[in-house]
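S2.1 Query sequence (DNA-directed RNA polymerase subunit Rpo10)
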Amino acid sequence: MIVPVRCFSCGKVIGSQYEEFMKRVEKKENPEKALTELGVERYCCRRTLFSHVELIDDIMRFNA
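Output structure tokens follow.
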């Protein structure tokens, strides 16, 4: 739903890199290269950012 502020496994702060990561991926940049340049080196942090699905806009439609 919302981008995790910290990695679920190691606790490193990663939420601040998500927007820049998505901008680069939308420009067709290699996700692996983008994460490396942003300083996200650990596999667990990379997994958390790479596999995140933004669902907040879909859920907000059903707000009563």
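The chain has four helices and no strands. Residues 1 and 55 are 5 Å apart (CA to CA).
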